[in-house]
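Re: that backbone. Tokens:
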């Protein structure tokens, strides 16, 4: 009987937490505080008020939960970006995601050593932990908003790309810190092996997963479960092969993001909901592992704030501005990208790796990273909409469209496309009769959530959703017609 009561209390706490998460998601439409901030601070506060909670949430248990959560979030984020969007911003995503991670880690490590007097080893571990941005926070903040230009794609792509890079770097640093005869060469070797194997597994998995998702199953509800299982297989195989499972999952998600497969809408909705749940679990669980009493001891909180300021006002602007020089962006877009490098669950997870590896002063590292992340989520995350407005970045909340019109078909409708007119498309403001639609015609327009009959005199607007019937040979040309035009 005691076991039933004990487990029932755990279920009750989890259910109440999910209920609060749903309520907060509605409140966040008016108060732009990310849910991650609420659950991170709430978890840390509850663990101090009710110390018994820590018995059910050891740092090893939470670490495993967060790893699963990050895998789910990265795969969903990769599918959301897709290959087409990634390809259009591949250069800034790759440079910020890879070179930016190393540059940020170096600047933060140097600052921690020179300003706070920490050893080079501790400073290096803190820099490696805080270098990557966080996909959970980025997808949470930007996922429900429509952002003009390429900034949202770059920020989301960077957060997905630099997490595997940061994790591989941190694991290499930990091995260097705990090995009796460590060297910088060992760090470089471990990082190169993990990322190359992870990238290879991700590419192969992405190519195989597309055809696999087309195989029919006996029930519609099994299709999302199949992709979830495949996601776990990809991560597990890459990790067992000593590669970055996180990178493999993210790359696989990107490659299948644009695939036309059965029940694609249901699969995306399932993974999006699961990613939201994973975010709550990750931040709430990580909060429970933080000792606020220790954070308040010996001015640790103040040192953490100093690191956060160094990260936000020095490291990110310095490294990001240099890497974005060759990218064609206006001043407002550059500043928005520099301010939008949010930290979250992944940096705390990396600090947890140091604790589990019993690195010297691991508790200090964990506490400092927690304070820096809390500052980033609360200050940067909350001010993202304000920064977008001040910098001239178009941003608006995406209005829900809960009602759908669907027609069940036994085979793939190869000649029917659903296309969203891009902000800078050449088709904007042009009468439909004037468009070069040889071999294709627009059957329906959905504008601001309302169906609209497509007539020859109708002018298209940004954000219009089009149902286009076309020949197979004309698909690429039709998609190009309504796609974004690259600004010179």
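Recovered sequence:
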């Amino acid at each position: 009987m005691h076991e039933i009561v004990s487990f029932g209390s755990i279920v009750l706490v989890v259910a109440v937490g999910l209920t609060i998460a749903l309520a907060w998601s509605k409140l966040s439409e008016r108060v732009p505080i990310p849910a991650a901030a609420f659950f991170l601070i709430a978890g840390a506060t509850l663990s101090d008020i009710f110390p018994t909670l820590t018995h059910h949430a050891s740092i090893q248990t939470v670490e495993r939960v967060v790893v699963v959560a990050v895998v789910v979030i990265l795969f969903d984020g990769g599918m959301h970006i897709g290959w087409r969007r990634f390809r259009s911003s591949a250069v800034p995503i790759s440079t910020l995601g890879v070179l930016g991670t190393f540059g940020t880690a170096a600047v933060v490590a140097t600052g921690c050593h020179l300003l706070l007097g920490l050893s080079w080893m501790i400073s290096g571990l803190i820099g490696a932990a805080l270098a990557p941005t966080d996909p959970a926070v980025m997808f949470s903040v930007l996922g429900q908003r429509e952002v003009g230009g390429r900034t949202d794609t770059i920020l989301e792509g960077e957060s997905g790309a630099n997490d595997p890079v940061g994790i591989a770097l941190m694991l290499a640093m930990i091995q260097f810190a705990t090995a009796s005869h460590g060297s910088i060469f060992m760090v470089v070797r471990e990082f190169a092996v993990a990322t190359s194997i992870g990238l290879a597994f991700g590419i192969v998995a992405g190519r195989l997963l597309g055809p696999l998702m087309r195989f029919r199953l006996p029930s519609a509800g099994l299709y999302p479960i199949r992709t979830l299982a495949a996601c776990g297989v990809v991560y597990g195989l890459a990790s067992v092969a000593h590669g970055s499972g996180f990178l493999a999952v993210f790359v696989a998600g990107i490659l299948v993001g644009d695939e036309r497969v059965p029940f694609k809408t249901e699969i995306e909705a399932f993974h999006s909901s699961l990613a939201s749940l994973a975010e709550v679990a990750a931040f709430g669980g990580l909060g429970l592992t933080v000792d606020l009493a220790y954070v308040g001891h010996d001015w640790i909180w103040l040192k953490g704030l100093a690191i956060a300021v160094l990260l936000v006002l020095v490291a990110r602007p310095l490294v990001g501005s240099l890497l974005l020089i060759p990218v064609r962006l206006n001043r407002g877009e550059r500043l928005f990208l520099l301010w939008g490098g949010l930290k979250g669950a992944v940096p705390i997870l990396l600090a947890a790796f140091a604790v589990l590896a019993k690195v010297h002063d691991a508790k200090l590292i964990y506490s400092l990273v927690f304070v820096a992340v809390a500052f980033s989520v609360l200050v940067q995350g909350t001010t993202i909409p304000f920064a977008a407005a001040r910098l001239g970045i178009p941003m608006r909340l995406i209005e829900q469209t809960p009602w759908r019109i669907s027609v069940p078909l036994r085979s793939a409708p190869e000649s029917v496309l659903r296309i969203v007119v891009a902000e800078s498309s050449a088709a904007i403001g042009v009468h439909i009769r004037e468009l070069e639609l040889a071999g294709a015609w627009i059957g329906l327009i959905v504008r601001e959530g309302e169906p609209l009959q497509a007539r020859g005199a109708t002018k298209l607007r940004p954000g219009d959703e089009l149902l286009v019937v076309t020949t197979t040979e004309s698909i690429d040309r039709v998609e190009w017609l309504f796609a974004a035009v690259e600004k010179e």
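The chain has a mean pLDDT of 82. Residues 59-88 form the longest helix (30 residues).
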